[in-house]
From TrEMBL, chain A:
SMART domains: REC (SM00448), Trans_reg_C (SM00862)
Residue numbers carrying 4-aspartylphosphate: D51
Highest taxon, organism lineage: Bacteria
Record PROSITE patterns: OMPR_PHOB, RESPONSE_REGULATORY
Protein name: DNA-binding response regulator, OmpR family, contains REC and winged-helix (WHTH) domain
Annotated ranges, domain OmpR/PhoB-type: 124-223
Transmembrane spans: none
From TrEMBL, chain B:
UniProt cross-references to PROSITE patterns, sorted A to Z: HIS_KIN (PS50109)
Organism ancestry: Bacteria, Pseudomonadati, Bacteroidota, Flavobacteriia, Flavobacteriales
Pfam families membership: HATPase_c, HisKA
Source taxon at top rank: Bacteria
UniProt keywords, alphabetically: Kinase, Membrane, Phosphoprotein, Transferase, Transmembrane, Transmembrane helix
Gene Ontology molecular-function annotations: phosphorelay sensor kinase activity
Annotated TM spans: 18-37, 130-152
Species, as recorded: Pricia antarctica
Catalytic activity: ATP + protein L-histidine = ADP + protein N-phospho-L-histidine
Record InterPro entries: HATPase_C_sf (IPR036890), HATPase_dom (IPR003594), His_kinase_dom (IPR005467), HisK_dim/P_dom (IPR003661), HisK_dim/P_sf (IPR036097), TCS_sensor_his_kinase (IPR050428)
Annotated Gene Ontology cellular component terms: plasma membrane
Name of the protein this chain belongs to: histidine kinase
Length: 224, 418
């Protein structure tokens, strides 16, 4: 996939690039407003990650331009401003998703995949990994064509794992993905362990064993 | 500590001193007037006595026969001439049938070879009568002056002080959070005008300081997000990079936890500022009981603490739906965080009141600081110290009553909706 990252903080921009390139994506960067306008004008992207506060202009204006020119790229807005108004403005202008700084790259990646799945070009509602396939429309997971009985959280967890294949996911990241702001409530992350374990059992029961433990307390979804 | 004295109204204070001074003046001038008037009368009477005596003397010299007209005139002959004297005397006056005070002049004259004693008397106005007259006329004057002055100055003062009282009311209603200027009424009186100017300067300064402080909090929270995002992204890349050992991984995930804490703190500070700025305007009819039920449901997955919920009322209220959610979440998470032991949390909704209680070992030592930012009673490191500050702000915003008490070994928070 061809992705443009319009972010004026170079360190963050490069971190995103590093993370996304591991999945075989082609990443281009724009470090200010003019650069972003120039690149979206000239090239077509599958997805654009757009910071609202670009050094020399507003990301929302880039978004307006994209929509005016009927570019088909999916857009995820990143903003340092956790305000509902900004979020609604962005979504009203046609952005596909909105994420607030600071975010986990795994979370961003998961959202990118979701946007791409819904995308008009080559959009596919299914995520497939060997014998596992997930229909994101009906929110059902299948192993070898056989539907699995998953709870809501187990389903979310499976999708999160599958969209971040080969990545180490710490309990903190998983907790925040599943419970958002409330995840700081938990004393320890034992409940993550319970959920992961249940999912693991259901998967291995069907013959799929991809959830590995990493560094004793993290997890990784990876081919044997 | 300054001594607090009983406060009196300005108009009362001034009329009080006016009355006091008037009373003293009245007493003093009554005394003076009394002596003055009685002296004057006495002089007048004496003058009349001397004049009568002179006329009698002239009459006697012209050989008029001596005559008597007691008690006014008495003429007698004596062997030896005495010394002329004037004195007060009390004599029975048959015409009035009472004892009356007279001024009496006795003089001795040798007229045509005879020694005469001439006594003339005249009625004296009694001193009580003078005093009476003075006091009565005084009281009449003073009363009418008082009444007149009272209404006159009341009306006058009201007009004169009106800008002052209007501005006082305005200052009472002055709110830091409102973006309207104080808008004082101007006055032609120099002192009031100056006072207004000073108040305007002062409120302007306070307001701009407050705004700066608020802006600062907002900016800091905002500016921190990007560096946090960078740190978080880099840590994730390190974790996904070359092989780490378990210890390094442990350190990195612990940093992730701290970043999350900072993020939470930031979000809550921003939330507080936004509530203060009244930026939540999505007012809806919400059932706090319903919301609490949902909150319990979602917490159930994270926390092992058992939550007992008794819902006897829907607790409908009008408020921003997001803030309603925040209210329930913060109250519940506060109870979960500070719950001790294995005991359960109890939530009761009835009669427009939501109360939530968790087990505790002892009452709070400083319950008055409960809603202060970053105040932590216990060393529970999970806490950002902002949850209850937010709860309080929301309650203040919508006029809910929030109470804390420690009863039967439980910390109880209750929110009452109007």
């Amino acid at each position: 996939m061809k992705i443009l990252i319009a972010e004026d903080e170079i360190a963050l921009q490069q971190s995103i690039v590093t993370y996304l390139e591991k999945d075989g994506n082609v990443c281009e960067v724009a470090s200010d407003y003019n650069d972003a306008i120039y690149k979206v004008d000239l090239y077509d992207y599958d997805l654009i990650i757009l910071d609202i506060n670009l050094a020399t202009g507003s990301g929302l204006d880039v978004l307006k331009k994209l929509k005016k020119e009927n570019k088909e790229a999916g857009v995820i807005i990143i903003s340092a401003n956790n305000s509902l108004d900004d979020k609604l403005d962005g979504l009203d202008l046609g952005a596909d998703d909105y994420i607030t700084k600071p975010f986990h790259l795994a979370e961003l990646n998961s959202r990118i995949k979701a946007v791409l799945r819904r995308g008009k070009f080559g959009g596919d509602d299914t995520i497939t990994f060997n014998e596992i396939s997930v229909d994101t429309k009906s929110r059902t997971a299948y192993v070898n064509g056989k539907a699995m009985a998953l709870t809501r959280k187990e389903y979310d967890l499976l999708v999160f794992f599958m969209t971040n294949q080969g990545r180490v996911l710490s309990k903190e990241i998983i907790a925040e993905h599943l419970w958002g702001d409330n995840s700081d409530l938990a004393d320890n992350f034992d409940f993550i362990y319970v959920h992961v374990n249940n999912l693991r059992k259901k998967l291995t029961g069907e013959g799929a064993k991809y959830i590995k433990t990493a560094y004793g307390s993290g997890y990784k979804f990876i081919e044997d | 500590m300054t001594k607090t004295t009983k406060k009196v109204r300005l108009s009362r204070k001034t009329s009080q001193s006016f009355l006091g001074i008037s009373l003293i003046l009245m007493v003093v001038s009554t005394i003076v007037l009394y002596f003055y008037v009685s002296n004057l009368l006495q002089d007048e009477v004496e003058e009349a006595l001397f004049s009568t005596e002179a006329r009698i003397e002239t009459a006697l010299k012209s050989n008029y026969a001596p005559f008597d007209l007691p008690p006014i005139v008495e003429i007698g002959t004596v062997a030896v001439l005495g010394v002329e004297k004037i004195k007060d005397t009390i004599i029975y006056d048959p015409s009035q049938d009472e004892m009356e005070e007279f001024r009496e002049l006795t003089s001795f004259k040798e007229i045509n070879g005879k020694n005469y004693r001439i006594t003339v008397r005249d009625l004296v106005v009694e001193s009580e009568n003078i005093l009476m007259a003075v006091v009565v006329s005084y009281i009449t004057i003073i009363l009418s002056v008082f009444v007149f002055l009272f209404y006159f100055s009341k009306a006058r003062n009201q007009k004169l002080w009106q800008p002052f009282f209007t501005n006082l009311e305005k200052m009472k209603r002055f709110s830091l959070t409102s973006d309207k200027p104080i808008g004082l009424m101007d006055s032609e009186i120099l002192e009031f005008h100056e006072l207004n100017k000073e108040i305007k300067t002062l409120t302007g300064k306070v307001k701009s300081d407050y705004l700066n402080l608020k802006q600062f909090t907002e900016n800091v929270s905002h500016e921190l997000q990007t560096p946090l995002a960078i740190i978080q992204a880099k840590i994730e890349n390190i974790i996904n990079g070359d092989d780490l050992n378990d210890i390094q991984y442990g350190h990195l995930t612990s940093i992730q936890k701290d970043i999350q804490r900072l993020t939470q703190m930031n979000k809550r500070l921003t939330l507080l500022t936004k509530i203060e700025n009244k930026q939540f305007l999505n007012i809806e009819k919400v059932s706090l009981a319903e919301l609490m039920g949902e909150t319990i449901q979602s917490f159930h997955e994270i926390s092992v603490t058992e939550i007992k919920y008794h819902r006897k009322d829907d607790m409908w209220t009008k408020m921003d739906s997001y803030l309603a959610e925040v209210l329930c979440t913060n109250l519940l998470s506060n109870a979960i965080k500070h719950n001790t032991g294995e005991s359960d949390i109890e939530i009761v909704v009835e009669d427009g009141r939501l109360s939530i209680s968790n087990h505790g070992t002892k009452p709070l030592t400083h319950p008055e600081n409960l809603y202060t930012r970053f105040y932590r009673e216990s060393e529970a490191e999970k806490s950002t110290g902002l949850g209850l500050a937010i709860v309080k702000r929301i309650c203040v915003l919508y006029g809910f009553l929030i109470r804390y008490e420690f009863a039967e070994g439980r910390h109880v928070f209750s929110v009452t909706v109007e």
